[in-house]
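so the lab meeting is tmrw and i was supposed to have these ready like two days ago... anyway. pasting both below. for each one the top line is the aa sequence and the line under it is the structure tokens. i havent really looked at them closely yet so no promises
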Amino acid sequence: MQGTNENSLATRETREAVSESDQGAAALSGRDRRMLGRIAEFLGFADLVAVLMVASTVCSAIATWRTASIATAIYKASDRPYMGVVAVTLNRDRPSDPRVRVEYKNFGSVSAEDAVLFRRMLIDGKIVGGQTRRKAAGILPPEAPHRLFLHLPPTAYDAIVSGRSTLRVEVGATYQGLYHGNLCYLERFVYEPAEDLFEVDGGTPRCEELGDLQVSAVAVPADTD
């Protein structure tokens, strides 16, 4: 009888030990799960921070690149030559040789290199013979004024100033600028007799539109004006 009681007691103690062990294991698993959850949450937050940092770096790099590109474009646009006409006027200094005086200059901030000037005169839509000319100007520094002349046929002068004939003048240029390669300029002017001045009548910076004037112009010495 005593042996039976001892066996029952041992069995009960074993069950209690197993139950406590299961409870401890269950409790440990809960802690592990919570710990693993925290680790997962931390890792998720860290990944999010890493992604945001990468995105911020990329955005910053793009912004820096865009700023540098805009600054470079502004610099190139400002640091270049700009050929243009200052004024076109009828010159009456020589009564027997009326002329059109064209004053031009480089409006840019650096010298124009390999500059070639072209001019042409048309009366009533017809090109005046001998007045489609080319002048190799070479290097033109900024803001220095230059002049060229076109000679009017004396017989046409009265008709032009009275408005019975139409006088048009075309002025073009090809030149180069540092970092910019080939540059061009073309501007057209028409004489308004009522105001005794020349008005702008179109123009372009496109080199391909300068082709006809450029090809037909005859080179002349600089001192023939």
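ok protien two:
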Amino acid sequence: MMKLIFIILVIGFLAYWYKCFLGINFSRRYSLSRYLPLKFMQRELPIMVKPGKPGTVLRYDFNWPFLNALEWYDPWSREQGLVEGGFARIAGERPVYHFLKSRSVKDYSIRPKKAVIVRAGDVFTYKARVRVLPEGEARLWLGTIARDQGRNVISWNQVKQQADMARYDTWQTVEKTFTVPDGTVSIQISISGQGKGLFWVDWVELEKK
């Protein structure tokens, strides 16, 4: 009996370790990885993706909320507890979208768990469909987090392209083509905002030229 219990505990520990290694965290609030020593098991660095020939490197359409929740980190915000995110439908529309709802006047962001290995001179196009419903002064933009060889962050917004906040409650495509500068070894796409409002995101894509 004790041997069976030991085997179950070992399997459970290995499963939990693998979950942490993949960066999966179903709930930061209730996660055991908040506590010592388990918090050292939770992977925060992104999963690296090496692109091959030109074409689509990353694409997210958010049609599968459960899988999407495993592929994206929880929203980060400078003011804790004032920004929520998730996957939902807009009334009268069938597709599922990623949303950010902010009661904060400071900045916040969402990002996928994958990062892309790059070389200086590589050219990429980053685009996403967004729908903005700001309350007062607010901004939303696409950005890239750049890291060096040691995976240290060089810039949290090496590339930045803002959405048109005047286009209230209507879909728009935000797009930016950029060249990777010297010293950047990997990039991770992000969608960031500042200010109060509701923001919908759909069809996020990174393409190598």
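from a quick look at the 2nd one: The mean pLDDT is 84. Helices lie at 2-21, 65-71. will dig more after coffe
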